[in-house]
Amino acid sequence: MNLLTPTCTTYGTRLWPMQPLPTEKVFMIIRGGCLCRAVAYEASQPIAKFANCYCSRCRKATGSTHSANFYVPPEAFKWTGGEALIVRYDLPEARSFSTSFCSKCGSPVPHRTRSGREVVIPAGSLNDDPGAKPAASVHWTSRAPWAPDSTDLPIEE
Fold first, then answer.
1. What is the pTM of this model?
2. Per 3-state DSSP, what percentage of the chain is helix, strand, and coil (rounded to 5)?
3. CA–CA separation, 66 vs 146, rounded Å?
């Protein structure tokens, strides 16, 4: 037996160099819902993208300077309550703009994109910390005149 290469005393097999353990993806579940708690959902990480959008449509849909949304694939999302209370609005003149809200309290809630490839989750609807921050400010030049003049995030058009 070579003293420089550790071996298992029971089976006599080499212990070094150790083989890496198989890695499994660990998906953290994040939960959210509406203000009145009638609508609830779960999403598993990782988040595909997380951005603040300053376009006029997002301002109208949120009533704020911008929307803060993150996106997950449909298979990473599920409703856990109140799905029948959700109202969806697809802006007719837009190719892809949609929004959804709780019919009881009006809170924005997640919705699938029209293509069905992603679920858009309003960050303000989260109950849990997603462990991420927005990665970009989208449509920055479309921001309202009363919006802040600067952002710490990369700007995308």
1. 0.78
2. 10, 35, 55
3. 12
- At residue 27, does pLDDT exceed 50? yes
> CA-CA distance, 148 to 157, in Å (whole number)?
17
Q: What's the CATH code of the domain at 141?
A: 2.170.150.70
d(CA 147, CA 28): 34
Is the distance from CB of 136 to CB of 67 less than 8 angstroms?
Answer: no
- For 124, the 3-state DSSP assignment is helix
Q: How many structural domains does the chain have? A: 1
Q: Is 123 inside a domain boundary?
A: yes
pLDDT in tens, 112-123: 999 999 999 999
Mean pLDDT over 70-92 rounds to 96
